[in-house]
Amino acid sequence: MNNSGSHAFLHSFANIIEHPRFIRNPAYKDAIVHPLLVAMMSYAMGGPVRMTDARGKDTQPISVNAQDNMLHVDNTPFREKYKILLGWERGAPKGPTGQNFTFLPGTHKGNRHVRQLSKDFPAWSTENDSLFNTNDSIDNIFEFQKDVTGRQDPTVVEVNYPDQPVTALFSAGSLVHHRYRNERGHDRSCIIYAFHLASDHPGALLDVAEFEQARTLIDALIGYQDGSESGIDVFCSLLCSNACQIEEKIEEIFNQMHQSCLIDTADLALSGNDLARWHQEVTRAPSASQLKYENGHFLSHAEGHIPRSLLVDKLSSAMAFDKHGLLELIIYDDGHEEIRKPARKSIWTLSKDQIRGIVSAWLPAVESYNFTVSDVQSLVVLRAEAERVASHIQDSFPAVCFDRESTHLHDQRVPSMHQLILDLGESLTRCEKVETYITTNLFLFLSTHLAILYASRGMEDSMRRSCEMFLRAYVATVLLIEGS
Length: 484
Hints:
By secondary structure, the chain is of the alpha+beta class. It folds into two domains: 12-281, no CATH class; 286-483, no CATH class. The chain is 40% helix and 11% strand. The protein has helices spanning 20-24, 30-33, 35-45, 135-149, 217-222, 229-240, 243-253, 272-284, 288-294, 308-322, 341-348, 352-361, 379-396, 413-427, 434-452, 457-483, and strands spanning 12-15, 49-59, 81-89, 101-103, 124-126, 157-158, 166-171, 177-179, 188-197, 330-332. Helix 10 (308-322) crosses helix 12 and helix 13 (379-396) packs antiparallel against helix 16.
């Protein structure tokens, strides 16, 4: 985390996919992907599973409603998804006592609402369809919970467990959950691994030659799987080879003298003032943009002239908050939004120093520029510009397949950025909030900047003009809001 973390105001984020030796380390891998957990998960999902994401996070006490922190179900309405989460107090061999994993028991039995124009069109959804951040949406969830559990009172479980680090296995695509961000307790560290059914989502977390013939269970989880008959045989064989370890862990769990134990989550349910405080945090916590202003990060400057260094600092500070605002990206019925995830993650994990470097490169587009309301572009114009950039990327790489996920970290950059820019442009058709407009323009600017780095020279000038438009639309809108 010290070397690779983003160290942002919201949390520090590390992409563990870039560190396969960490995932495979025999000293602690079983705390996260113990064979017993893999067996239970595979049984629940109905077949071999494979890892699709691996991330680490340090989260400090903060009250905020930001992307990836709200009460939600994961963005997988068309396929099942499980997660394994290991949480502990940052810097100590103790359990988490702040920023805790929190969930609503019984909600995993619900069905997801999806959108469909007619039976002739494919179903689809959006990321915001997976959020529960209003009184009405939470009341509806509690009503459903009452129906399926038979309990009259709402039940919210906060895994506040100081005794020892906690590993949680849960159905992330159906259980309503979140990181309960508030200003109490200690910093929390966690590792999160995500899993799909191999037959639903063929592929590999890492396409590395040494994983082609899986010798261990962890190799199978991060290597290529497609749910084929031969693949099922290999997966089951590797599970069976861990039978003694699974049996031993079950015995330890039911041995009251052993440190391994099952936590009775009923004892962790919130009640009274704690439940009321949780409800208020979920519905009324400030957004990323509100925190930006509370921390004094304004772009506008009282004096006529602003020093270049101060301009870079103001822009990079504002962007560090605004990139955590809400987007309205589409979820496809065939799951090909997975293609955009590496590119999106590359923007989320940009540190403030990296943002400063990008801003410095684009100073001529904003320095001494006279911003007007006309720089706040219409959604139609922005979408057309995003599609133009995506087309230039595709034209620059005629040999690249843009319709499939790549499992090589280097090869996935181009199609991933292409899909992200396309989806950002598409999402503008549903852009109803100013904050979403600001964050979408910022993402379009940052993603286009990164795409220019590997586009062909013939496309570079046109892409630079688009990048300039996205940046100016972002800055002009922020200035307009600050002046209102």
